[in-house]
Design brief:
By secondary structure, this protein is an alpha+beta fold. It is built from 7 helices and 6 strands; from the N terminus they run αββααβααββαβα. The longest helix is centred in the first third of the chain and has 46 residues.
Length: 247
């Protein structure tokens, strides 16, 4: 009986102190949590504010990275712009590398001017310019003019297809009026062997100019300057008679 009383008394003492132990534990945890959140709040305010006005009682948030203030429209646009710039730079890097190599090759090379036309066409150019200057229509002579830049298409549905067909075709010589309208296209047979593509381009030029109502003169390799001059002047004078606004 004596041993039993001792054991029962010990348990009563232990259980009697349990409420005090639980209260102490809960108090300790509460203090720790309050200290943790207090320090976190202080660090957040110090890290996300540009200044603190104790006089006005205002905490001014920084412009970027502030979780305590809502981002403005300008701030969102600025961030988006930075992301786009970074993405664009990474995207164009592969495209810029070949250009960088080309620039490196250009930096190591030397250059000089080259004639615009072949030597065999110099006399033809002088003849055309002489005829243009003798006329009163304000004609101008163009060299290596793109056909697609001088001819417009009336059918908009076929424009993309036709532009691809005309792309890359040059007129050796082109005479335009004072308003830039094509008057006559002139080619000179230099005697070189024509490739299949050159033959196709010539056929395209002749057909397009025919439908556009534009003259096409082809000066042979061995030509008479007097005959070529007479034919060209006849075309220019006829154009002046048909278009009074030019003359």
């Amino acid at each position: 009986m004596g041993m039993t009383d001792v054991i029962i008394g010990s348990f009563e003492q232990i259980f009697g102190q349990l409420p005090r132990l639980f209260g102490f534990a809960i108090g300790s945890v509460t203090v720790v949590l309050l200290a943790f959140f207090g320090v976190k709040a202080i660090l957040r305010l110090r890290g996300n504010s540009a200044f603190t006005s104790f006089d006005l009682g205002v905490v001014a948030p920084v412009q970027y990275g502030d979780r305590g203030a809502k981002e403005s429209r300008d701030e969102r646009f600025s961030k988006r712009l930075e992301e786009m710039v970074e993405t664009e730079e990474n995207y164009d890097l592969e495209k810029l590398m070949p250009k960088a190599r080309e620039l490196g090759a250009i930096a190591k090379s030397s250059f000089h001017t080259a004639p615009v036309i072949a030597k065999s066409n110099l006399a033809v150019l002088a003849l055309i310019e002489e005829c243009a200057s003798q006329s009163k229509g304000g004609f101008r002579v163009l060299m290596h003019a793109r056909l697609e830049s001088l001819i417009d298409m009336e059918d908009p549905e076929n424009s993309p297809l036709m532009k691809r067909s005309l792309s890359g075709i040059d007129l050796t010589f082109a005479v335009v009026d004072r308003y830039g309208r094509l008057v006559v296209a002139i080619d000179h047979d230099s005697g070189e062997k024509k490739t299949h593509q050159m033959v196709l381009n010539r056929a395209v030029v002749m057909e397009v100019l025919r439908k556009a109502g534009v003259w096409y003169l082809e000066i042979p390799q061995h030509y008479s300057p007097e005959d070529a001059r007479r034919q060209l002047l006849q075309v220019l004078h006829g154009y002046e008679g048909q278009h009074e606004d030019v003359a």
